[in-house]
Design a protein that fits this description.
The protein has eight helices and 14 strands. By secondary structure, the protein is an alpha/beta fold. It starts with 20 loop residues before the first strand and ends with a helix.
Length: 340
């Protein structure tokens, strides 16, 4: 498998004679501000699907076919599907893309229900078409520094502890729909997946979740390689800069601290080993460029093991949270929520 941590570096824009055609599902704010600016120079945006016609531009490009269909049309002639719509549609669209021999690039969360995970894994085995999950922390330049600064040997345990603040969403925001899953599933998945990625998707030996009276979530995970993970996920605090995160990663009596995805510091017992600051959105840029470069070079996508183990753990934690909600929410409130 090689050293995956040392292998992540800034990818240069790919060069090729004929651009690959992309069909984008979901034309919301994330697609407009993050996905399209990072891929439009490397691929041909041929189709955009968005079921909400008010999201589509008033001045439409004559080179793009706009569509409000929520499903893949058989006549669509593209090479890659970028899937960034409603959460519960991600897995089914990816399966259909792979069934037609097309590459699927899926935004998080990849899965919202256990049944869809089984269907997706079965499709990956059957069709063997590349699939890429957009967990940008896997593509961060910090990963190479972590491996170097903590002197990590292959599959050596790396413990990971973080505090994450999220801006509270409006009551009717679609992220809060029952089918979308909780904030743990929709956003907390990033840190859970990063922890597993750094530990080569080692098997999980134990996990737990506690919900404080104020709504804070405390998550704990232990792997069979003895690496541990803890996350405090909160909506309490200042929203001045939006999402905030502080991560500490520990191994070999050394510590790496990462703040807001842009500030990096590594230290041992005697000195600071490395201190760097980069652009906050650099990981997104590197992720999309790396994925497109891999597709152009006919490289394999994410492994079945990484998709299965990461999403199985995330879904298990989500199930614990949903059980807590059902146990502590009055029946009338639940019925109102499910009818939304």
């Amino acid at each position: 498998q090689g050293n995956q941590l040392a292998g992540i570096a800034a990818a240069s824009p790919p060069h090729y004679s004929k651009k690959l055609k992309v069909c984008l599902f979901g034309y919301g704010q994330y697609a407009k501000t993050i996905i399209l600016p990072n891929i439009k120079k490397s691929v041909d945006i041929a189709y955009i699907h968005e079921i909400d016609p008010t999201q589509l531009p008033t001045k439409k490009s004559k080179f793009i076919t706009y569509d409000t269909s929520p499903t893949i049309r058989p006549e669509t002639a593209c090479d890659i599907y970028f899937i960034a719509g409603y959460h519960h549609t991600h897995a089914r669209l990816a399966i259909e893309a792979m069934r037609t021999g097309k590459i699927a690039v899926i935004e998080k969360p990849i899965i919202t229900h256990q049944h869809d995970l089984k269907l997706l894994i079965d499709a990956m085995r059957q069709y063997q078409t590349p699939l890429f999950a957009c967990y940008q922390k896997r593509y961060h330049i910090f990963n190479k520094w972590i491996a170097d600064d903590l002197t990590i040997k292959a599959e050596e345990p790396i413990s990971y502890h973080c505090v994450v603040f999220e801006v509270p969403l409006p009551e009717r925001h679609w992220y809060r729909w029952p089918h979308s899953g909780s904030r743990l599933l929709s956003n907390g998945c990033h840190w859970v997946d990063h922890f597993l990625y750094l530990n080569y998707y080692s098997n999980v030996s134990h996990f737990s979740l506690q919900v404080a009276k104020n709504g804070d979530l405390n998550i704990f995970v232990e792997l069979t390689n003895q690496a541990t993970f803890s996350m405090l996920l909160t909506e309490k605090g200042s929203a001045r800069l939006g999402l905030r995160e502080h991560i500490e990663i520990r191994a070999n009596q050394k510590t790496v601290a990462i703040t807001d995805g842009s500030q990096y510091q590594a230290e041992d017992a005697y000195r600071i080993l490395r201190k760097k600051r980069i652009k906050r959105l650099a990981a997104y840029q590197n992720m999309y460029r790396t994925i497109i470069e891999k597709i152009i070079n006919h490289e394999s996508g994410d492994s079945i093991e990484s998709v299965e183990r990461s999403n199985a753990l995330i879904l298990s934690l989500e199930n614990l949270y949903q059980e807590h909600i059902r146990a502590h929410t009055p029946r009338l409130a639940l019925e109102t929520q499910y009818n939304c």
